[in-house]
Amino acid sequence: MSAAPRPDTSPRIEPFRLRGANFNLLVLRLLDPRPEAVVPAIGDQFRRAPGFLRFAPVVLGLGDLDMPPGQVDFAGLIEGLRGLEIVPIGTTGGTPEMRNAAMAFGLPPIRSVGGKESEEAPPIAAPAPAAAPEPAAPPPPAPGMARPTMIVDQPVRAGQRVWAQGGDLIVTGTVNAGAEVIADGNIHVYGALRGRAIAGGGDRADARIFAQNFDPELISIAGYYAVREGLGGAPIGKAVQVRLTGERMRFDPIG
Amino acid sequence: MAQVVVVTSGKGGVGKTTSSAAFATGLAQRGKKTVVIDFDVGLRNLDLIMGVERRVVFDIVNVISGEARLNQALIRDKRVETLSILPASQTRDKDALTKEGVQGIIEELSKDFDYILCDSPAGIEKGALLALYFADQAIVVTNPEVSSVRDSDRILGVLQSRSKRAEEKREPVKEHLLVTRFDPVRVERGEMLKLEDIREILSIPLLGVIPESESVLKASNTGTPVIMDGESTAGQAYADAVSRFLGEEKPHRFIEAEKKGIFKRLFGGRAA
After folding, report:
1. Residue A190: which domain range?
2. Are residues A243 and A168 in the same domain?
3. CB contact under 8 A, A159 and B157
């Protein structure tokens, strides 16, 4: 789901390791097979949050497509999604023929862990999926809703990097000098923030950074950043929240 | 089962080898069967500080490459019966160490010893990673100085992610902070980090504070672990730290600046 604290790229003793892992992925359920209908609709949906899905891996949900696989323009869909910086990595649901067709375009079927796939799959109950373009219907799994918060209970140490992908990050201890905490949402540090804090990863200008003892090396919100030298006016050592007003960072005491 | 204890710091020159020698000797003096391994292949020093440099025949690399048996490479200390030293190689580099080789040595030593101390090289490269990989406990040596504290912070992160215990998701490596070269007078003058600041940043239990002392250099040069110098403040502080390591309660000493009397002020004088 998210990157655990890990040291950076020191040479490893072994060349590789194979391990199972579970990932939280977004499923893009296709209700319409035509790229010219799907791609602009996604573009509209995320115009307000540009870059929200930037380079996000998505799984294409094929369960709602009720047509021969030959009518689905996988090549066009992949190209269109990539144009929006969304990376399709596989498929879920759909008929075996449909899955095979997608495989030919480098999209392998991905099995979901809880077998939810089969719950979503039965299109039998679905009252004839009208197949009409229905451009008004938003892509179903509005990804803005699911924003898990990552909580870190240990100090984040020099050389460690914690990334709360797609959500907020709470550090109950300190973020030491030389450490880096990154969140797509807000960052809360209940100890001292002495390292780098990067919030609003996906261009979320409304993200904030909160620190009980504000003493950072660098802070950044939605791509705007300030290094320590540029924090002259900020209340160093105090409880502070940082937010973006326009293109300026604001530092307000809290508590 | 032996306890594997790594003495590490990230930064060089903070007193890892001095502390390894003192700790190993201290544990052995309390009757614990102790072996101390020098992982600093290519820059071996532990044998000098332990005063056994003239008795080195084989080393850890010889054992790993099968050129010698472990028993041939172990040097038994002449002062403390329960203490042995496994020296590093001076002529090879750290690539000669392999994880399997080190594992074999530690498994074999585990049969005969209570404590296996691993004297880590500086850095976070192969030698240091192998020294900490099998650790059950870690003594993190830090000087009251910002770069040393930051490197210790880094090595704590490595311990929590790259040790065998971390990889196997077992109970984490037990961490101890050992602050060395501590000079209360310079701390008071603001030239060194305060003890509270170091503890706050690293947030691991404090095992001991070793005061800056001339006797450490003298001990190194004569090949006598400083813990054997019961007169010196550093030797006493190491003895206290060993006691705490073994679970005894001991108040921390030598952390406040000594109030100098009028004569000392007039005539100078330094702590032994």
Report:
1. 149-253
2. yes
3. yes
In the stretch 10-49 of chain A, residues with CB closer than 8 A to chain B read 10-11, 13-14
Q: How far is CA B170 from CA A220, B67, B175, B215, in A?
A: 36, 34, 14, 40
CB contact under 8 A, B161 and A159: no
Answer yes or no: are the C-beta atoms of A91 and A107 closer than 8 Å. yes
Q: Are residues A159 and A212 in the same domain?
A: yes
Q: Which chain A positions have a beta carbon within 8 Å of B161's beta carbon?
A: 5-7, 160
- Say if A200 falls within a structural domain: yes
Which residues in chain B have their CB less than 8 angstroms from residue A190's CB? none
For residue A228, is it within any domain?
yes
CA dist., res. A221 & res. A224, Å (int): 5
pLDDT digits (tens, 9 = 90+) for A36-82: 888 888 777 666 555 556 667 888 888 888 888 888 888 888 888 88
On the question of pLDDT at A98 being above 60, the answer is: yes
What CATH number is given to the structural domain containing A236? Answer: 2.160.20.70
Same domain flag for A181 and A228: yes
User: Domain for residue A166, yes or no?
Assistant: yes
Residue A5 lies in a domain: no
Within an 8 Å CB–CB cutoff, is residue A177 touching chain B? Answer: yes
Across the interface, which of B99, B125, B154 has its CB nearest the CB of A157?
B154
Average pLDDT for chain A: 78
The model carries a pTM of 0.67
Given a contact cutoff of 8 angstroms between Cβ atoms, the answer to whether A12 and A163 are in contact is no
Interface list for A 42-101 with B (CB within 8 A): none
What is the C-alpha separation between A41 and B116, in angstroms, rounded?
Answer: 64
